[in-house]
């Protein structure tokens, strides 16, 4: 049957994890999530403006606005998730140690 790609047995047989590469990957996907949030938010604002200017089709514009706003929130959530994944990879990549002063 199908196995999940993060299976512990598979990880034991693979080479060590490159945390610098993972950190860079999560940084890029975080930035894509941020870009998606900004773009969807801008589109939502655009549709809100069109709803005011085009009362005949206001309902259609309002629906598009709400969908775009939902996409913006989801994209921002994804960016936040990737931010935490990046921090986790960075912690591993830089050998997170407790420094005592």
Automatic annotation (TrEMBL):
The Basic residues compositionally biased stretches are 83-101
* Chain segments carrying region Disordered: 1-61, 78-101
Q: Where is the composition biased (Low complexity)?
A: 31-44
The record's section on Pfam families has: ABA_WDS (PF02496)
* Domain of life of the source: Eukaryota
The family annotation for this protein states:
Belongs to the abscisic acid and water stress-induced protein family.
User: What's this protein's name?
Assistant: Abscisic stress ripening protein
**Gene source species:** Rhynchospora pubera
Give the classification, highest ranks: Eukaryota, Viridiplantae, Streptophyta, Embryophyta, Tracheophyta
């Amino acid at each position: 049957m199908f196995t999940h790609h993060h299976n512990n047995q598979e990880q034991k047989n693979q080479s060590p994890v490159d945390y610098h590469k993972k950190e860079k990957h999560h940084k890029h996907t975080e930035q894509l999530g941020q870009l998606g949030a900004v773009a969807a938010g801008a589109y939502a604002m655009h549709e809100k403006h069109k709803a005011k200017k085009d009362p005949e089709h206001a309902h259609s514009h309002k629906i598009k606005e709400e969908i775009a706003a939902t996409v913006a929130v989801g994209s921002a959530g994804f960016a936040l998730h990737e931010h935490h994944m990046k921090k986790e990879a960075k912690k591993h990549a830089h050998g997170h140690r407790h420094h005592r002063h």
